[in-house]
Design a protein that fits this description.
Number of strands: 9
Radius of gyration: 33 Å
Largest sheet: 5 strands, mixed, barrel
Number of helices: 2
Structural class: alpha/beta
Strand content: 25-35%
Oligomer: single chain
Length: about 260
């Protein structure tokens, strides 16, 4: 009854199903692999967030980005704000609200600088109008101690422009920005400072929530597609069997098998 499965059409269909099943299973396991990578990355981020703060000079330097393993580590730095070389970063969102990050160089005791992302501010009425930026807070002697998260430089064209006296960019790549002197490669997202920030702006940048994405559901979908491919092949074969049975049942009997009543 299943001899038809050896016909070229069915052999080709079977081969196609095998290829599809192998592909779907491979994609499913690839998604599970990506899920494990994301989980490992999230565990690393949680561990770095929980680590004790360390002086910025131990994790960052001029001319080389921080090690990827040190991203999100908390660092401390003491210095003086250089508002003359303040930079705005366009197209940054907080809670789905578009705005700008404020990057202010902090001049350390050795003369090197580290860019501090002091926070987020809403956009101005027009891009061509210079955006008012809240002044940073410092002690009576002009110094401030900041604590923040290490972030790696962002690749890509920074699309640097000037609006009034302020430089505006879309990407944070300290090596390409006019920071006013030697600057650490990478930047720091402000978490707290001493003396503390006053006022509501700039709004501190949230550290963000961790997600595993949709990799697990995608994996199950690919596995389901594999099962469906096999089930479809089996269903087609069963329908073909039923069709052949009906055709055989509807065929008239041959003369030698017909009996005649006399």
């Amino acid at each position: 009854m299943l001899a038809f499965l050896r016909k070229p059409k069915w052999l080709l269909l079977g081969a196609l199903v095998v290829v599809m099943v192998v592909a779907f299973i491979s994609l499913g396991f690839w998604q599970l692999g990506r899920l494990q990578q994301v989980r490992d990355e999230n565990q690393h981020i949680l561990a770095t967030r929980a680590a004790v703060s360390t002086p910025v000079q131990q994790l960052m330097r001029v001319g080389a980005p921080p090690a990827a393993a040190n991203e999100y580590r908390k660092v401390t730095a003491t210095g003086r704000w250089d508002t003359a070389h303040q930079i705005l970063v366009r197209y940054r969102q907080i809670a789905d609200d578009n705005g700008l990050y404020v990057l202010t160089p902090l001049v350390l005791a050795d003369g090197n600088r580290v860019l501090i992302a002091r926070g987020w501010i809403p956009p101005g009425p027009r891009a061509s109008i210079e955006q008012p930026v809240p002044a940073p807070v410092a002690g009576a002697d002009g110094t401030v101690t900041v604590t923040g998260r290490v972030r790696l430089p962002e690749g890509g064209d920074p699309h640097q422009t000037t609006v009034g006296k302020l430089v505006s960019v879309t990407r944070i790549d300290p090596a390409t920005l006019p920071a006013g002197g030697p600057v650490y490669d990478g930047y720091v997202e402000l978490v707290s400072q001493n003396p503390p920030v006053t006022g509501q702006l700039p709004q501190l940048i949230p550290q963000g929530t961790l997600s595993e994405g949709n990799h697990e559901s995608y994996a199950y979908q690919w596995f389901t597609f594999g099962v469906m491919a096999v089930a479809g092949y089996v269903l087609l074969a069963m329908l073909e069997v039923r069709k052949r049975r009906r055709e055989r049942a509807n065929q008239p009997e041959s003369p030698e098998h017909v009996t005649v009543d006399v």
